[in-house]
C-alpha cells in the first residue's frame, strides 16, 4: 500500500504505485490538455509530483520536450542565477565488505589496490586540495566496520577542518558513507558535516537485492530508510540519487521523486541535493554488462524533469560525465559540479600509478579545477565556492524558506562573487584572473539590493589587503 508518510520503505516507495504511475504515464503521454496543465503547474515553481513528471517523461511529442527544456532553463536561472557550485570528492578508503556487483570496491575483487588514508595522509591530501582552491569537499568511503569505523570518519572530518594552509581552508565537509543508525547520524551532525549523501542505486527492491547479494548494504529497507534516520539525527541537509543504468530509468525516476516527496511530507523539507550519476566502467566493471544504460537524449530529459519537479534542490553532476554532457546539463538544471577530481583513494598530493589503481570509477572529465573555472566563466556562469548558508545555520527548512521566497539571492549572489574573487586572487592563472575580474565587476551590478551591492564591493576591496572569508 502506498503511503507517502509511512516510515516503511516499501510503503513510501510502493512498487505498485510506481507500476500504476508508469501505466498512467503511458496512457496519457499524448494528452495535450493534461500536458499543458502539468507544464503550467511547473511554471509556478511549485514542483511536480511523481505522476505528473512521469507523464512528461513518457511524452514523445517533440514540442513538449522543447517546452520542458525551456522551462527547466528558466527555473534554474530564476532560482540559481548564473551560479555553479564547485567541489571535489576525497576518497578515504576503498575497503568494503559489500558485494555490490556494479562497484569495483566489492569484497570479492582481488585485483583492485586496497587503500586507507592515515590522518597524516589526509592532511597532505587536504593541503593539495586547498592549493587547488577548493573550499568544499565530499568524503567517500567503502563500508567496512573494521577498517573504516565511524570513529575513523569522525576523526578524519576533524582533521580536514583543522588544516589551514596559506589562504586555503575546507569550509564544508559533506559526507557520502553507508547507511547509519540515528545515534551515528547524531555524531556526524555534531562533527559539523554539511550534507549527508547516500545514493539509493535503484528503488526496485527485487533488483536492489540482486545487485547487492552480500553485506550490510543488501538490506533494502535499512538502506532506503536511511534519510529518515539522518533527519531524526539532526541532519537536515540530505542528498539522494540513483545510479542510472542499474534499473530501467523510468522506474527509478519515479522512485526518486517519491523519495523526495516522502521527505517533504514527513520532515517538511525535501532533499538538499539530487545527484544524477550514470553507470560507467571501472576496475573490473564493464558498462556493457548493464542493459539498462541510459542514452544521452533520455538523460538530458531526466535532468530537466528533476529540475522542474524539485526546483529548489541542488543538482549534482560528477566527472563521470564528459565536458559536453556537463555543459548540456548545466543549461538544463545542474547547479553543482566537481572539478579537478580524483576518484582514487587520495591522489591529489600525487596522482597514483596505474598499477596502484584504487579508483571507484573512470573519469570522463579530467580537466584541472582552473580549467573548469575558466570554462564556466566562458559559458557565462559564476563559479562559486560559497559555504555561507551551512556556516550561518541556513540549512534544511530555513534554507528552503529563503529560497522559496526569493530572499536567498541577497546572500547567494554576493557570496558567490566574493568566493570567486578569493579564488582568482589566490589560485587562478593570469587568464582566469582577468576573465574572472570582468565577470565579478559585471555581476556586482546585477545585485538588486543596493546595500548588499555596496557591502559586497567593500568586502572585495578589502581582499586586496589580504583579508578573506567574508560572507552574508
TrEMBL record:
Pfam families: BATS, Radical_SAM. Keywords: 4Fe-4S, Iron, Iron-sulfur, Metal-binding, S-adenosyl-L-methionine. Residues 275-383 form the Biotin and thiamin synthesis-associated domain. This is [FeFe] hydrogenase H-cluster radical SAM maturase HydG. NCBIfam families: rSAM_HydG (TIGR03955). The keyword Nucleus does not apply. GO terms for biological process: sulfur compound biosynthetic process; water-soluble vitamin biosynthetic process. Gene3D superfamilies: Aldolase class I. Its cofactor is [4Fe-4S] cluster. PANTHER family: 2-IMINOACETATE SYNTHASE, THIAZOLE BIOSYNTHESIS PROTEIN. Residues 337-363 are annotated as: Disordered. Residues 348-363 have a biased composition (Basic and acidic residues). Coiled coil: none annotated. The gene is thiH. GO terms for molecular function: 4 iron, 4 sulfur cluster binding; catalytic activity; metal ion binding.
